[in-house]
């Protein structure tokens, strides 16, 4: 799947303003420092969100949130989700109804913790789509983990390992990684991948 203006326009409008915004969003996702949180990740999340759209209350809001969920991505910052939400707020104003815009902004912020409420259908779809990579076959998961390490190339191994262990522990501590019925079969392979990486990193930290 590639990211096309037509897909963005179907959620907003087909206008010069929408095309300008789409181009700016694509440029942001294509920044040179990105190794995992790049256009391929955007396309993947959009694709899975589409597959899970039947579970959403507002599939269009979920899709727009996917477009913006990592539109701001600085590996040295801790507030990428908040800045991405603000970017969505500014970029989509006038292109979508205010109530949908508010839902998009809420959903983008939700990706900071990937822990939607039990009755949050839209949040469940977006978070499941964003975390779908965790249930990849082992080789693909290894490629994902390697790309994440490259994005944090400014950190030495010890610092990165400690931080990554914290991320993995937080994910494994979630009561459920996946909330939609379609995605629930991904739970076991995702936890196996996370646990294997965590075991590897703990051994590395102890050596």
What labels describe this entry?
207 residues, mainly alpha, Catalytic domain of cyclic nucleotide phosphodiesterase 4b2b, 10 helices, 63% helix
N-to-C SSE string, H for helix and E for strand: HHHHHHHHHH
What is the helix tally? 10
CATH architecture annotation name: Orthogonal Bundle
Q: Radius of gyration, Cα only, in angstroms?
A: 17 Å
Whole-number count of domains: 1
**Remind me, CATH topology?**
Catalytic domain of cyclic nucleotide phosphodiesterase 4b2b
Which CATH class? Answer: Mainly Alpha
Shape: globular
What fraction of the residues are assigned to beta strands by DSSP?
Answer: under 5%
* Global mean pLDDT: 97
Main structural class: mainly alpha
- The residue ranges in which pLDDT falls below 50 over 5 or more consecutive positions are none
Number of strands: 0
Question: Going by CATH, what is the homologous superfamily?
Answer: 3'5'-cyclic nucleotide phosphodiesterase, catalytic domain
Give the helix proportion (percent range). Answer: 55-70%
Distance between the termini: 42 Å
GO molecular function, one term: hydrolase activity
Keywords: Hydrolase
